[in-house]
Amino acid sequence: MKRYERLAEDVATLIRRGVLAPGERLPSVRQVSRSRGVSPSTVFQAYYRLEARGLILARPRSGYFVRDQARRLLETPGISPVRGAEAAEVAVSELVFSVLDSLQDADTVPFGSAFPCPGLFPLPRLARSMAKGLREMGSEAVVAGMTGGDPALRHQIARRYVLGGVRLPVDELVITNGAMEALNLCLQAVTRPGDLVAIESPAFYASLQVLERLQLRAVEIPVDPRHGVDLDVLADRLGRWPIKACWFMSHLQNPLGASLDESRKRALYDLLVEHEVPLLEDDAYAELHFGPQPPWPVKALDEAGLVMHCGSFSKCLAPGYRVGWVAAGRQARAVARSQLMTTISPSVPAQAAIADYLQHGGYDRHLRRLRHALESQQQAMLAAADRHFPAGSRVTRPEGGYFLWFEFPERVDSLQLLRLALAEGISLAPGPIFSATQGYRHCARLSYGHPWTARSERAMVRLGELLATF
Amino acid sequence: MKRYERLAEDVATLIRRGVLAPGERLPSVRQVSRSRGVSPSTVFQAYYRLEARGLILARPRSGYFVRDQARRLLETPGISPVRGAEAAEVAVSELVFSVLDSLQDADTVPFGSAFPCPGLFPLPRLARSMAKGLREMGSEAVVAGMTGGDPALRHQIARRYVLGGVRLPVDELVITNGAMEALNLCLQAVTRPGDLVAIESPAFYASLQVLERLQLRAVEIPVDPRHGVDLDVLADRLGRWPIKACWFMSHLQNPLGASLDESRKRALYDLLVEHEVPLLEDDAYAELHFGPQPPWPVKALDEAGLVMHCGSFSKCLAPGYRVGWVAAGRQARAVARSQLMTTISPSVPAQAAIADYLQHGGYDRHLRRLRHALESQQQAMLAAADRHFPAGSRVTRPEGGYFLWFEFPERVDSLQLLRLALAEGISLAPGPIFSATQGYRHCARLSYGHPWTARSERAMVRLGELLATF
């Protein structure tokens, strides 16, 4: 990363964290140049970049200011207690499917979408990589590639782990049909029907569906929107219940956007080792952090082979290609064999495309552009919520990803809100699909994964009006 | 199909069935011209084609003769009784994996291979279809295509059903990660752990692994190499046991190559209806029939929605792409939802490639070439077995596919044979991996899916010598 890029990232972090408040004047170019020991032109370049990202504003003869958009009128929600401390049978699938079905219409404003706008991905470049990959692979490899995954792709993924400070043997890696297959295979490797699994609350709805499908019981651990899963509650539950696995998102948790900081990651790992409980670390959003450095996963600490770290290209590069992976620790062999008995392998051409793209396509450049697009879209949605949503609404401010979690006044029923919004061509993800016990009735997840337009702004206005009717 | 093609197919069928014996003189061009009411040049064209396929031979001034290769020195095996009539726990997976692992070496003569030679597939043409499909699809469709499968592909598959005489509503179709995912999802839709499932004996080893993985118990029904699964035994078992599903291959059963004729398909369907038992009809080899017409599946009779008909492009067009499907009858919705919770969808680019190829690539032309190649390779392997394998060996003569099933003298141990053969660079699939009870110790499946070369011939000589050491 160049000097001016690093400076820009540092300032962006200060703005995101509220250290530099909306409307506040930035230090002058001269001050920064002196304090950081860089040339004035480096500071100019950094500020120019922040201006292009919509984070700051130049006022003639006055200097640079944090944009008003980044105000913090709506508060951040606190941690919500989980309803009932008991382990719950999961029966949320019908609700989830009926909601997901209702979100299918391509013409709605896609605040309910699970994917970012596909226009943000380098799909034509990937298609060229696929043609090249297929040409270079030869016909024998199309069959051979079904065993153990594309070697070039495995190498590229292992390389990114090393660059991120995680050493792991390549043979821990299993390439999968997206992170969803990885998570399914891992969970099946370490549980039997009826077992208890600790999950987050609120949780990614698909994890609830998987538990239901495998007849597992959920022990819901509350998540703090700022700090991640509540480790005190987890420690208590691990001590009292025969929990067979934890399934957590350590970064940019869906739907809250919460991340565990370094000390909490260490504390979580110590708990796993103490209780000999494996962790499914679902890290599908890892590459969508807004900060300058990718956070390291709990997997980085994993001497014991207890962590199954699941990643994916679906949210950051190649939606629809269905390529993900797991670094499965001591379960690697069981997971690979289980895959051979169910789907055999992910699509070989899709693997070849991604392997070639990672090597030649400019992945890191794409990721920087994508993160900046998402960051400015987040600012736009936060600002619109500030302006249009009723007083007493709360919202998260995640440091990455493309979801905001809203906690509306208690009187709001988000399933009813969804019906009203869909009638007006606006989708959203209502709170109850994120909970085994169908809580969070007054909450909703909104996606800012699509470019912000006048239509998005009008949709926020209309949502605000609908919220006021409750 | 043109007139001369139809005539060639009719003669090929007579040769395959032994009506025209090896060495026998074919009717003269004049005779055939008169009896079929076609021009002499049509007969010439047909005979020319059969000569090119290696089935007949022209002798100057004597006419055309059935090639000597197609002799029948080795007998066809009979039906083998299943060991023990009880339902069996399945525990064959470790054996299967250790055998499959040993077959990985790319340098062996691949008689143990599960796939035909990839050189027989139009992979460069498919790669062009993929590039075109991706270009025409646009970015939104890469995400949208994850729900319900590529519409163009669904349409093409439904069209082939209609052409084959099967009417089915398009919404019964679920596109899957190969037939393996389809079979897994279907079985999970209709069973719970501990349930009984009727399977064939010998059976495709992967079906045994799936039963083991899902903790299902196998009721093995013997298969007659000529007539397919024994319906009397099946009727008896259905009457006595609470069987929750049947999993059969109605055509070119793996490993025996047996197919059910029309009356047996009807009888099987009547049994399903009488006992209200669903059928997983695994039809992965349907397109590899050597006869002129594709056989219709049991699914064609399925008024009741009991049949889940699973197909795949992996064995006939696009290995490694991992695209198959199921026409799932009344389970279609359950199967689609179960997929959304496990792998979400098959790779969208792979689906687009196959959709474009089916529409523009010349699929039927490719299939004709592939069938003819396999048919002549079968002749070559049968002839080599005749020459080199010990007296008392028996072999199947399937009307399609790329597997022969050998029954050696009782003293032969095929697991030991495999070890000896591998040491000499020859692979094969030993009998015990095809049985829940690890029977068929003196049997083996050999693939003729690769072009026949001097090396193949030498490998058969060497196998014959190894067989003689038992």
What would you say about this model in short?
Two copies of one chain form a homodimer. With 470 residues, the first copy, chain A, is α/β, with parallel strands linked by helices. Chain A has helices spanning 3-16, 29-36, 40-52, 93-102, 123-137, 139-144, 151-163, 178-190, 205-213, 231-240, 262-275, 332-340, 348-360, 363-388, 414-423, 454-468, and strands at residues 56-59, 63-66, 88-89, 173-176, 196-201, 217-224, 228-229, 243-248, 279-282, 307-312, 324-327, 394-395, 403-407, 429-430, 443-447.
Describe the structure.
The structure is a homodimer of 470-residue chains. Chain A has 470 residues and is an alpha/beta fold. Chain A has 3 domains: 3-70, Arc Repressor Mutant, subunit A; 88-119 and 365-468, Aspartate Aminotransferase, domain 1 (Alpha-Beta Complex); 123-360, Aspartate Aminotransferase, domain 2 (3-Layer(aba) Sandwich), CATH 3.40.640. Chain A is 42% helix and 14% strand. Chain A is built from 16 helices and 15 strands. Chain A has helices spanning 3-16, 29-36, 40-52, 93-102, 123-137, 139-144, 151-163, 178-190, 205-213, 231-240, 262-275, 332-340, 348-360, 363-388, 414-423, 454-468; strands at 56-59, 63-66, 88-89, 173-176, 196-201, 217-224, 228-229, 243-248, 279-282, 307-312, 324-327, 394-395, 403-407, 429-430, 443-447. In chain A, the strands form 3 sheets. In chain A, strands 3, 4, 5, 6, 7, 8, 9, 10 and 11 form a 9-stranded mixed β-sheet that branches. In chain A, strand 8, helix 11 and strand 9 (279-282) form a beta-alpha-beta unit. The longest helix of chain A has 26 residues, at 363-388. The relative contact order of chain A is 0.16. The interface between A and B is large, with 53 and 52 residues.
